[in-house]
Design a protein that fits this description.
Length: about 130
Amino acid sequence: MMNDLRFIPGDTVWILWQKPDNKTAPCPFCGGECYAYATGENEETVQIPCPKCKGEGELTISSKWKREVELRILDRVQLAVGVPPVYFVGNRWCYDDPDHGVDQLFGTEAEAQAAAEKWNAEQKED
Ligand SMILES: [Zn+2]
């Protein structure tokens, strides 16, 4: 079913982008130092990258997604028979439809913020 074309190129739109929202914590094995000590072949002590965090110093303790609102100018609309219009901002695309795709656009900031807050409040951490 074809949705109404509510926006055209040049319109100012508020876009709900989905972004990763991961929490990290210092590695419990190396304490965030990124390295550990090991016994070498000749019984010497050698420093190696921490095997727990792989030398990163931190571990991802929860991963989830959040949606953020951004004010943008609509660049392009792509129409195809039988599917909703696809709106482009730069090379990213979004839909004027909450049930189609994760990135969505709105005509007012209030609508976009309300949708972002509602969606973010429903997310559970892994
Ligand atoms: Zn570590």
